[in-house]
Design goal:
Helix content is about 25%, strand content about 35%. The chain is α+β, with helices and mostly antiparallel strands and about 160 residues long. A hairpin with a 3-residue loop joins strand 4 and strand 5. The radius of gyration is 16 Å and the shape is globular.
Length: about 160
């Protein structure tokens, strides 16, 4: 059996925030909007996810009575246009994949966000299917809801 690559997972959403605010909300406030109970390594024990906002920085979770667990490393930090991560949480630690998030302005008060999760091999098909659905939940129930709250409040820092 060969280990042919699978197509990248692609997810797109539009939020009612200028691109600089969308990027800041996504990166600086990830611990606010990320659905830890359903999308973390420790689930109910998870307390926070933190993104170190710089190239080489880590994305990790903290949990009750457990050491921090790294999910990814920042491989490209280009605010407010691009964030790229070498993605290797839990069972992907030995076979990291690449997550790239692109931020494009759609006028003054809207932004298009595209997530591309690439580097999947056919041997990872089960995880690939889980991530197809998982990114929908993270982006829609997590980030898009948070961005909607921010848009209603008028600026970052007034929501939640």
């Amino acid at each position: 059996m060969t280990d042919d690559p699978l197509r990248p997972i692609r997810k797109v959403l539009v939020v009612g925030l200028p691109v600089s605010e969308a990027f800041a909300a996504f990166t600086d406030h990830m611990g606010v909007w990320w659905p830890l109970r359903t999308h973390s390594l420790e689930h109910d024990r998870a307390r926070e996810c933190i993104l170190e906002c710089k190239e080489g920085g880590a994305l990790f979770e903290t949990a009750d009575d457990a050491p921090p667990q790294t999910w990814a490393r920042v491989t490209n930090w280009t605010p407010p246009k691009r964030l790229a991560l070498s993605w290797a949480p839990g069972d992907l630690v030995d076979n990291p994949t690449e997550v790239t998030i692109l931020f494009d302005p759609l006028g003054e008060r809207r932004s298009r966000i595209e997530l591309i999760h690439a580097g999947w091999r056919s041997a990872q098909l089960d995880r690939y299917v889980v991530y197809q659905r998982g990114w929908d939940a993270v982006l829609v129930r997590g980030f898009q809801v948070y961005a909607l709250e921010l848009g209603k409040a008028g600026q970052i820092g007034q929501a939640g």
